[in-house]
Design brief:
heterodimer; A: 603 residues; mainly alpha; three-stranded antiparallel β-sheet; 25 helices; B: 510 residues; alpha/beta; seven-stranded mixed β-sheet
Chain lengths: 603, 510
C-alpha cells in the first residue's frame, strides 16, 4: 500500500497509480485485484458478462455430478510421461518454455499504455481528417468488451492487426489526400508544385504534431522528406501527403497512448501539457486532442489546475462529450446492443441518451436523478410500447403515471433488455446485474457442475409458474447460498419484460400472475424499478459504484488495484459531498494536480 | 532512397525461392515418416490446417436417431454425423453429404475423448490433457493444445498444433501461418467474445488474433506480388517502394519512441515494432508468384457488412437477418485465399475458424437456404433448437453448413495438380467441431449432451506424410490431440507431444 499523497486533498488520490504505464508493474498479486464483472468473469481471457449465470434455477442441482464412478476417463493411451504440470490447479501456461519472440504477458493488474480502440480510432479519424466511414470497424477485429472496450490487457498484437492497419491507413490516407474539399480542413498550406519542400515541411510539422499528439524533434521531421521523392516521381505533391498520412496512421506513437513524464519528484513524474491533453481528450471525448487543445498544451495552460479546468469545460460543451458519456453508460449498464428490432432499439437508445444528457449536460443536477427521474423521453412508438401517455409533438418528455412503478434509467427498455436469457427475463441475471454493475460487488461464479446453457424442459416446468420455480430452486440445498444473493433482486423486476413492458403474468401462462415483491438483501423490499432505484440511491450508495466503474474505464483496465479502489472511495466521498453534481465532480477530478502526474516506473 | 536491409527472407529467396524445405530430421524417418521423406525429396511441401466449427455434433438430450422437425418428433437414423459402419463402406450421414465426392480423400475419426475427473469438479483433479468440468471453456485448452484446463475460461495452456508446426517450419515460407476467422462478430447483445474467438496460440500460450476481413486477407497475401500484366508493373513497383519507405520511416523512429517508456509499455510497443518488421519482410520477400497452378486469385471486393447483434434472445424469437454477416460468402472467400496460399506455397499452415466457440451466429438465413429454416442461433440449435426444430437433424443441418465449407476447400485442393497427384495429396486438413455428444462434462451424469468431451469426432483429409484416408476409424480411447499430432506429424512436425498429450492415432496412416 502506498503512502497517502499529502497536501492535495481527496482528489489527489485520483490516478494515484497512474493512468498509464508502469504504475504498478510487478508489484501486484491477485488478492489485490477486484473485478467488477459478474459471474463468468474470469482471468485474462474471460471477463465476459455473457449470461452464463450458472445460477439459473432451472439448471440441475450443482452436486448431482458428484459421487460417480472412479476416475477412469477415456485417456488410457495418454503418455503420463509427457511434460505434465502437477495437478495443483496452477495454470499450465506458466510452465511452458519461453517463446522465441516477445510475448504479451501483461496481467489484468498491469498498467500499460492502451491502444486506441475501434471507437477511438473511428472518432479520431473523423475528427482529424473528416473521415466518417468508421474504417476501424471495417478492417479491425472486434474489440473485447469486459464490459469496457479499452482494457489494454485484452489487446493483442499479431499479423492480423498489422495487416489490417496497413490497409486501413492506406485507404484513409488516399481518401483524405485525394479529396480537395476534405483536405482543406486539415492541410496547413497550398503547395506550389509537386516538390514544394516548404509546404511539405509545414505539413509534416503540423500533421506529426496532430497525430502523435505532440511535436517531434526537427531531425525526425527532416527524415519524412524522403516521401517528396515519390511526389516528384509522380509529379503530384499530394502523393507525398498520402504517404505521410499512411505512415503516421501505422506508427505506434499514434496507435498507443504513450506517456513518459519528466522531472521525477518523490516517485511521481510530471506529465507535460501534451500528455495531459491526450488524457483529457480521450477521457472526455473518446478521441485525440484537437489542434486547439494542443495549442493550449503548447502554451503551458494544461499543466495548471485552472487551465485544465477551463479546457475540460470547453470539451464538455461539445457533442462529442455527450457521445462519450453515453457510450460509457451503454457499456456499463449493458445496453450497447439491444436484442430487439432496429426501430425499437433506436427509440430505447434515444430515451436513455436524452435522460443522461438532461441530468449531466442540459440541466445539471444530482447525478442520482438518472435513477430516480419521474419523467422519460419517448417517441409515440415508445409511449405506445410502454403504455405511457403520448408525448406532445411526436416525441418528448412524459411523466410516469402514478403507480406505474417506474422511475429513471432502470425503467428503460434499454436496461431492462440487457441480462435476459432464454428469450425471457432472468431474475438471476438481473440480480447479478444489480450486484456487480450497480453495487460493484463480486458474486461467486456458478459451480462448474451446473450446466447454465439449459433452460427448463417443458416437463420440468409443467404446472409451475416461473417465480415458483425460481423460489423452489432457491430452497434446494447447495443453491440457496448464492441464489439468495441475487434472485430476490431480479424478482422485484419481473413485472417488466425483456422489452421493458409491464406485464401481469408470465409470458406463456396467464394463470401465472406475477407477484413481484423483490428484496435488495440488507436494504429492504421493493416492487419495480422505482422502488429499487430508491433503495439504491438512498441506502446502497450506487454513486460509489458509479465512481469505481468510471475510474476503471478511465484507467483502461480490467480490474482496479487496491490503491485504485482506495482512490475511488475518496473520489466517491467528494462526489457525495458535492451533491452528486457530475459535471463539477469531473472538473475537480481533471483539475487535481494528480491528473497531470504519473507514477515513476519502479523498474 | 530506401534503406535496404538484407532480410532473412531475402536470403531465402537468394538460395532458391521461398519454397525451402526443412532439413529432414532423423526422427521423421520412422514408419510414418517415409512418405514424408519421399515428398520432401520431390520438393513437394506438406501442409496442415484446421477448419473449426463452434458447435456440437448432436442435440442436447436427444438420442442419436431422434429429432423434432416441423413440430413432429420422430426416430430416424443417418443424421448424426457418425456412420454406423466402420471402414470404407460406410453410409454417408447428413452432415457428411458435402464430402460425397471426396470419400476416398478423408477419414472419420470417431469416439475420441478428452479425460476428466468423474469424481470431482475441482481444478486440482483435472487429469493431464484433461478438461475442467465446465463446458464450454473447460473443453478448449485440452482440445486445441493438449494442456488441461483448470478454469472455465476460454484460453489455451500452451501452443496449438498449427502453431507448433508453424514454429518449426518458420522461415520455410513467406508467411508462417494463416489464422483466419469467418464469424466476424460475437452477436450476443450485452456480452463479448471473452476468448472464444481464438483457436491459434503460439508457444507461451500467446493468443493469435485472426484476420476476419477477406479484403485485408487478400491484400496481405497477394497485393505485394508483381502483377502479371506488364503495364501494371511500373505502378506496382512504385507502390511497393512507397510502402517500404513508409514503413522505414516508422522503424527509424523506434528507439526514439521507446525512450522514457516504462518497462511494460516498452515491451508492448516493441512487440508492435517487431510485427511491423515482419510486415516489411513480407513485402520485401514477395516478388513473382510461382508458375503452374499458382496464380493471383480475383480480388474479393469489399467485405460483406457485419451484421448487428441478434434481434432475439437465442431461440424462437430470432428470425430477422441480424446476427449474421453473410458467413457463407466470407467462408468461401477465405477458403479461396487459403487454397491459393497453399498452392503457391506462401504458407503451409492455416486455421480457418468458421464459427467461434459457443457461437451465437443466427442460423435462420443459412438453414433457410438449406431447406430447413431454424429460428435460433447456432448455440441454441445444439441445446434447444427452436420450438419446432431440434435434435439431430437440426444440429446436423448446421454442421453440414460447416462441412460444406470444409468440402469446398478440399475440392479445390484436390482439383489442383501437384507432382503425380494433387495439392490435397500433400496436405493434412482437419475438420474440428467444438464438442462431442455424450456424458455431460458439467454434471458427469446426463447422457447425449452437447456439453461433452466424449464421443468426439474429427475429420482428417489428405495424404500428407503417408496418411491413408477414406475410412471411418474407431478411435476409441484416443485423445483428439493425438489425431492433431498425427496431422502435424504427417506435415513434417518433429515430435510426438503437444502439451500433455503424446502419441498418434496409427490407423490414420493405414
Amino acid at each position: 500500500m502506498m503512502a497517502p499523497y499529502r497536501g492535495l486533498g481527496r482528489l489527489a488520490w485520483f490516478f494515484l497509480v497512474g493512468l498509464g504505464s508502469g504504475a504498478c508493474s510487478g508489484s501486484l498479486t491477485a488478492p489485490e485485484e477486484q473485478r467488477l464483472d459478474g459471474p463468468g468473469a474470469g482471468d485474462d481471457d474471460d471477463g465476459s458478462e455473457l449470461p452464463t449465470d450458472g445460477a439459473d434455477p432451472t439448471a440441475d442441482a450443482p452436486d448431482r455430478g458428484r459421487g460417480g464412478a472412479a476416475d477412469a476417463g477415456p485417456g488410457d493411451r495418454l503418455d503420463p510421461g509427457a511434460d505434465s504440470p502437477d495437478a495443483t490447479g496452477a495454470d499450465p501456461a506458466d510452465e511452458v518454455d519461453p517463446p522465441s519472440r516477445p510475448t504479451q504477458t501483461s496481467t489484468p493488474s498491469d498498467s500499460v499504455a492502451p491502444r486506441l480502440t475501434q471507437a477511438e480510432l473511428n472518432n479520431t479519424l473523423r475528427d482529424l481528417l473528416g473521415d466518417d466511414t468508421s474504417p476501424a470497424s471495417q478492417y479491425l477485429a472486434e474489440d473485447e468488451f469486459a464490459p469496457y472496450d479499452n482494457d489494454a490487457t485484452r489487446q493483442t498484437v499479431s499479423a492480423a492487426l498489422i495487416d489490417s492497419m496497413q490497409v486501413l491507413a492506406e485507404n484513409v490516407a488516399a481518401r483524405a489526400a485525394r479529396d480537395p474539399r476534405a483536405r482543406s480542413s486539415w492541410m496547413p498550406c497550398e503547395p506550389q508544385g509537386a516538390s514544394d519542400v516548404a509546404c511539405f515541411d509545414q505539413a509534416v510539422m503540423d500533421l506529426t504534431r496532430l497525430f502523435f499528439r505532440r511535436p517531434i524533434p526537427d531531425e525526425q521531421l527532416v527524415s519524412y522528406r524522403t516521401l517528396l521523392d515519390f511526389a516528384e516521381e509522380q509529379d503530384d505533391f499530394y502523393v507525398s501527403i498520402e504517404l505521410l498520412l499512411a505512415s503516421l496512421l501505422q506508427d505506434p506513437e499514434f496507435l498507443y497512448r504513450l506517456e513518459r513524464g519528466a522531472n521525477a519528484n518523490d516517485g511521481m513524474l510530471q506529465l507535460d501539457g501534451y500528455e495531459v491533453a491526450t488524457r483529457l481528450s480521450f477521457l472526455l471525448l473518446g478521441s485525440a486532442p484537437s489542434r486547439t487543445l494542443l495549442d493550449e498544451a503548447e502554451a503551458g495552460a494544461l499543466v495548471t489546475t485552472e487551465g485544465r479546468r477551463n479546457a475540460a469545460q470547453q470539451l464538455l460543451a461539445t457533442n462529442a462529450a455527450r457521445r462519450q458519456l453515453n457510450r460509457f453508460h451503454a457499456m456499463w449498464l449493458g445496453y450497447r446492443a439491444i436484442p430487439h428490432d432496429a426501430e425499437l432499439n433506436a427509440a430505447f437508445q434515444l430515451e436513455t441518451q436524452t435522460l443522461i444528457e438532461q441530468v449531466v449536460f442540459d440541466e445539471p443536477q444530482n447525478y442520482l436523478n438518472l435513477f430516480t427521474s419521474p419523467t422519460t423521453y419517448v417517441s409515440e412508438l415508445l409511449a405506445e410500447h410502454y403504455g405511457l401517455p403520448e408525448p406532445s409533438g411526436g416525441v418528448g418528455w412524459v411523466s410516469y403515471p402514478s403507480g406505474s412503478g417506474r422511475a429513471g434509467i432502470l425503467s428503460h427498455g434499454s436496461v431492462l433488455s440487457a441480462f435476459s436469457k432464454f428469450s425471457d427475463t432472468s431474475p438471476t441475471q438481473r440480480g447479478i446485474f444489480v450486484r456487480t454493475r450497480l453495487l460493484c460487488q463480486e458474486v461467486p461464479p456458478p459451480p462448474p457442475t451446473v450446466d447454465v446453457d439449459q433452460p427448463p424442459s417443458a416437463e420440468e416446468s409443467a404446472g409451475s409458474c416461473k417465480l415458483d420455480r425460481y423460489r423452489a430452486h432457491r430452497e434446494q440445498s447447495g443453491c440457496a447460498e448464492c441464489h439468495s444473493l441475487f434472485d430476490p433482486i431480479g424478482e422485484g423486476l419481473e413485472n417488466y419484460d425483456m422489452a421493458g413492458r409491464y406485464r401481469e403474468h408470465d409470458d406463456d401462462d396467464e394463470s401465472c400472475v406475477i407477484d413481484a415483491v423483490g428484496a435488495l438483501p440488507g436494504y429492504g423490499e421493493f416492487r419495480g424499478p422505482a422502488e429499487l432505484a430508491a433503495l439504491l440511491t438512498e441506502e446502497a450508495a450506487i454513486g460509489d459504484c458509479f465512481v469505481r466503474q468510471y475510474l476503471q474505464y478511465s484507467l483502461a483496465k480490467g480490474a482496479l488495484t487496491s490503491a485504485e479502489r482506495q482512490a475511488a472511495d475518496d473520489l466517491s466521498t467528494a462526489f457525495t459531498e458535492n451533491g452528486y453534481m457530475f459535471d463539477q465532480w469531473l472538473l475537480e477530478l481533471v483539475s487535481a494536480e494528480r491528473f497531470a502526474q504519473k507514477q515513476e516506473d519502479d523498474q | 532512397m530506401n534503406r535496404r536491409r538484407l532480410h532473412r527472407r531475402t536470403l531465402l529467396r537468394g538460395i532458391g525461392g521461398v519454397a525451402v524445405g526443412l532439413p529432414l530430421l532423423e526422427c521423421m524417418l520412422d514408419a510414418n515418416g517415409s512418405k514424408l521423406a519421399e515428398a520432401q525429396e520431390l520438393g513437394l511441401p506438406q501442409r496442415y490446417g484446421i477448419v473449426f466449427a463452434g458447435q456440437a455434433i448432436g442435440g442436447d438430450g436427444w438420442a442419436k436417431n431422434m429429432q423434432r422437425i416441423d413440430g413432429e418428433s420422430y426416430e430416424e437414423g443417418g443424421h448424426y454425423i457418425v456412420p454406423s459402419e466402420l471402414g470404407t463402406d460406410y453410409s454417408l450421414t447428413t452432415p457428411l453429404q458435402p464430402l460425397e465426392g471426396l470419400r476416398s480423400e478423408f477419414s472419420i475419426l470417431s469416439n475420441m475423448s478428452i479425460p476428466f475427473s468423474r469424481n470431482s469438479a475441482e481444478a486440482s483433479e483435472v487429469p493431464p490433457g484433461g478438461a475442467y468440468r465446465d463446458f464450454h471453456g473447460g473443453g478448449k485448452s485440452p482440445l486445441l493444445c493438449g494442456v488441461r484446463s483448470t478454469s472455465p475460461d476460454f484460453r489455451c495452456g500452451g501452443v496449438t498444433s498449427d502453431q507448433a508446426l508453424a514454429e518449426q517450419l518458420r522461415g520455410s515460407t513467406l508467411i508462417d501461418s494463416l489464422v483466419y476467422r469467418v464469424q466476424p462478430s460475437w452477436y450476443l447483445a450485452g456480452s463479448s467474445y471473452a476468448g472464444r474467438q481464438y483457436i491459434s496460440y503460439a508457444t507461451g500460450a500467446e493468443r493469435i488474433e485472426a484476420q476476419v476481413s477477406p479484403l485485408v486477407a487478400y491484400q496481405a497475401l497477394f497485393d505485394n506480388f508483381t502483377p502479371d500484366q506488364a503495364d501494371a508493373r511500373d505502378a506496382h513497383d512504385f507502390r511497393q517502394r512507397a510502402r517500404l519507405s513508409v514503413l522505414d520511416l516508422i522503424s527509424e523512429r523506434r528507439e526514439r519512441v521507446l525512450v522514457g517508456l516504462s518497462q511494460l509499455d516498452r515491451q508492448r510497443v516493441e512487440r508492435h515494432y517487431d510485427e511491423l518488421r515482419e510486415l516489411e519482410m513480407r513485402i520485401d520477400g514477395a516478388t513473382e508468384l510461382n508458375s503452374g497452378a499458382c496464380s493471383r486469385p480475383d480480388a474479393p471486393g469489399d467485405d460483406p457488412p457485419v451484421g448487428g447483434d441478434n434481434a432475439g434472445s437465442g431461440s424462437d424469437s430470432i428470425a430477422t437477418n441480424t446476427g449474421y454477416s453473410d458467413e457463407s460468402l466470407r467462408a468461401r472467400l477465405l477458403a479461396d485465399l487459403i487454397h491459393m496460399a497453399l498452392v503457391c506455397d506462401l504458407t503451409r499452415v492455416f486455421t480457418l475458424q468458421l464459427t467461434v466457440f459457443q457461437s451465437h451466429m443466427n442460423v435462420f438465413q443459412l438453414t433457410s437456404e438449406m431447406g430447413l429454416p431454424i429460428r435460433a442461433d447456432l448455440h441454441e440449435v445444439g441445446h434447444n433448437g427452436d420450438v419446432d426444430n431440434k435434435g439431430q437433424l437440426a444440429v446436423s443441418t448446421c454442421l453440414k453448413w460447416h462441412i460444406n465449407h470444409y468440402a469446398y476447400l478440399l475440392n479445390k485442393l484436390a482439383d489442383t495438380p501437384e507432382g503425380d497427384g494433387s495439392v490435397l495429396d500433400n496436405s493434412a486438413i482437419v475438420f474440428m467441431p467444438e464438442a462431442g455428444h455424450g456424458l455431460q462434462l458439467n454434471d458427469a451424469t446426463s447422457e447425449n449432451q452437447t456439453h461433452s468431451v466424449e464421443q468426439m469426432v474429427l475429420l482428417l483429409a489428405g495424404r500428407a506424410g503417408g496418411l491413408l484416408p477414406g475410412r471411418h476409424i474407431d478411435a476409441t480411447g484416443y485423445h483428439p490431440v493425438q489425431a492433431l499430432l498425427s496431422g502435424i506429424r504427417a506435415a513434417g512436425f518433429a515430435g510426438d507431444t503437444l502439451g500433455e498429450v503424446s502419441g498418434f492415432v496409427p490407423d490414420v496412416f493405414g
